[in-house]
Structure formats: C-alpha cells, structure tokens
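About this split. The held-out portion is used to measure sequence recovery: a designer receives only the structure tokens and must propose an amino acid at every position. Recovery is the fraction of positions where the proposal matches the reference. Here is one held-out target exactly as it appears in the evaluation file.
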C-alpha cells in the first residue's frame, strides 16, 4: 500500500512538472511567436522606411542631376552674357564716335529736305514745310533719342519719295492772276505736273516750273483734268490722260 501511495505521489508530481514544463513550453512558444511577430513588424516597418528612403534618394538624385544640368547651362549663359557685355562696351565706344559723325549728317539732310521742297512744284506746301519744321525742332530736343530722330527724318524722306509715285487730288486756296484767292481742286501727277480746276468749272491751269508761276490752259484740257481728279479720288478707273506736261529743263555743261 505504501508503494502504491508513493507511486501515486511521484506520478502526480511528475504530471505537475510535465504540465508546468508544457505551460512553459507553450508560453515560450507564444513569447517566441510574439517576438517573431514584433520582429516581422519591425522588418516590415524597416522595409517600408527603406523603400521610402530609396524613393527619396532617387528623387534627390534626379533633382541633383537636374540642378547640375541647370548650373551647367547657367554657366554657359553667364559666359555668353559676359562676352556680350564686353562687345557692348566696345560698341558704346563706337556709338560715341558715330554720334559725332551722324548728327552733322542729319542736320545736312534736314537742310537738304527743306531746300528740295522749296525748289519742287508747290503742292501741299504747308503740310510739307510743317513736317520739316517738326524735324528741325526734334533735332534740338535732348529728351529724344538719336535713333528716334533718325527714324523720323528717314520717314519724312520716304513720304517725299512716295509723292513721286502717286496721283493725288486735294482742295486748297490759290491766288489767281487777278489778285484774288479762290478755292480750287488741285491735281498732282507724281512730281511731273500740278494742275488746278476751279469749283465753278470755268478755269483750269497748271504750274509752270520754269517760270515758277501758274498759267491757265485751254478749255480743251479741263475735261482731262476733271477726269484726272476723279481717278485720283478713286471715283473713276485709271485711264490715259491727255494733259499738257512740261518737258524737264535741260542743262548743259556751261550752265
């Protein structure tokens, strides 16, 4: 009986130890699993952080490459601007020299234009003389650039050139041979001829460049002058006009 009791106590003790060991094993396994889970979570977190850092690294690397390319291009631009600045400095020196030469030339051109108008057939005299006066006033202004003065001067020359290539009609006042002034229609054909036609259709005439005066023309020419006025006003198609045109004066070597 004692042996049985001892065996029972020993067996109970063995079972308790086994249970304790099993619980410890289970707990150890649980702890191991939890540790493994935490480790995996850390690994996952580290993996995500690594991927994020890798993406950031690639982005920074791309930005760095872009900045290097931009800096390289900027260096070229700065070098080019430095060369251009050096060239401009040289050009500025030349401009000062050119200014001393071109201003007297422009003044001569203004004077030549004024003389040309005074010697030309007397059409639109007030308008043309006003244009020259404006250029003369412009030349004396310090607030106007030299380039703008030159542009306006060349523009005035171009206007005068265009007069020689066009036909024009306009109305104005004419001092007649009887000393009276009358309103007439003028017909300009290039720089070749200048005619007038009174509003009452009674008198027609032309400018005599050689005598520097006005002269009446036969009534037979009045119809052609009227037709020329209509053509100039775009009220009639272009057509041949039979008009008294004065031949240019010939000059010989003896004057």
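Reference sequence for scoring:
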């Amino acid at each position: 009986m004692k042996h049985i009791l001892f065996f029972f106590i020993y067996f109970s003790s063995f079972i308790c130890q086994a249970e304790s060991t099993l619980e410890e094993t289970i707990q150890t396994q649980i702890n191991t699993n939890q540790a493994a889970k935490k480790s995996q979570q850390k690994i996952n977190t580290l993996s995500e952080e690594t991927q994020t850092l890798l993406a950031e690294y690639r982005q920074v690397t791309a930005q760095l490459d872009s900045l290097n390319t931009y800096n390289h291009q900027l260096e070229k631009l700065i070098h080019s601007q430095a060369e251009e600045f050096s060239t401009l400095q040289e050009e500025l020196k030349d401009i000062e020299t050119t200014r001393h030469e071109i201003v007297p030339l422009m003044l001569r051109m203004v004077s030549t234009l004024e003389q040309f108008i005074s010697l030309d057939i007397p059409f639109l005299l007030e308008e043309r003389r006003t244009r020259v006066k404006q250029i003369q006033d412009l030349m004396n202004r310090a607030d106007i650039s030299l380039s703008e003065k030159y542009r306006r001067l060349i523009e005035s020359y171009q206007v005068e050139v265009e007069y020689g290539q066009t036909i024009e009609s306009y109305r104005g006042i004419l001092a007649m041979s009887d000393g009276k002034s009358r309103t007439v229609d003028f017909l300009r054909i290039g720089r070749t001829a200048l005619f007038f036609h009174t509003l009452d259709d009674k008198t027609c005439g032309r400018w005599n460049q050689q005598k520097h005066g006005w002269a009446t023309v036969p009534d037979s020419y009045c119809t052609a002058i009227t037709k020329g006025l209509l053509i100039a006003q775009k009220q009639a198609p272009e057509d041949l006009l039979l008009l008294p045109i004065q031949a240019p004066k010939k000059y010989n070597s003896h004057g």
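Annotator remark: Strands lie at 167-175, 181-189, 193-198, 204-208, 213-216.
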